[in-house]
Amino acid sequence: MSSCCPTGALPASYAEKGTSFTPAGETIDLGGGCRCYATGDPRWKTAIVVMHDVFGLDGGHHRALCDALAAGGHYVVCPDFYQGGSIEPYYKNGAADEGKEWLKRFNWAWCSAILERVYAHLDGKGVTSTGSIGFCWGAWAVAKACQDPKRVQAGVWCHPSCQVGRELYEGETEHELAQRVRSPTLILPSPQEPELYRNGELAAIFKANGIASEMEYFHDQSHGWMTRGAGFLGKSWFDSGGRENLTSMIGVQRGVNLTLGWFAKHLHHK
């Protein structure tokens, strides 16, 4: 049986089950427990910091996504905020509430300390502009990072779960997070996220603050489609309705293309 996508259309880890995947990048240690996956060439002078979902760096297809973004002309770094951990075991054991308690340790004080090491690494590589994309939980981290436009000049929220800000951390609502964002932001929601991501509420906040924003609604996808890891409300992507088929593969490629276009527009200084 042939693959649903042409050879080379997507990173190998998105292919049919049993297909081997060899990451193009490498694992690097930035000290202080900051392990990262890094891929691409810093000579492009632009970088993308990838914020993983609640399955962690080693869950889903984060490395494949990083490689796809690097192939678009960027140096890409995905820090492991959970230090090898994942909420997946809690999901599998039907203990989502315990998983939320575990997630509480990774607040903004924790994440920002890790990001400072990442930024120092990028500075040392000669990077001049940086974007960030986050998935699920990671979209919240992107929103926080984009409050400092000197460090992150553009952000992408993909199947966002920014409610973790008010449920687990500093108490910021999705609207308050948007109010504090100072970098252009692209939102890529699916039907399983709240309507506020696509009904214009957040767009109005960005516009009032003079922050460029766009939204592309992925009506035919399931939460988690870009990473194939964490799904919605304590389930995996597959258990949330995700399926490995042509529609979902097109969704991944559209997400990658839109992200690369957003960064091409906002990371290259005139």
From TrEMBL:
Pfam families: DLH (PF01738). InterPro entries: AB_hydrolase_fold, Dienelactn_hydro. PANTHER family: DIENELACTONE HYDROLASE (PTHR17630), PROTEIN AIM2 (PTHR17630:SF44). Residues 45-229 form the Dienelactone hydrolase domain. The lineage of its organism: Eukaryota, Viridiplantae, Chlorophyta, Chloropicophyceae, Chloropicales. This is Dienelactone hydrolase domain-containing protein. It comes from the Eukaryota. One of its GO terms (molecular function) is hydrolase activity.
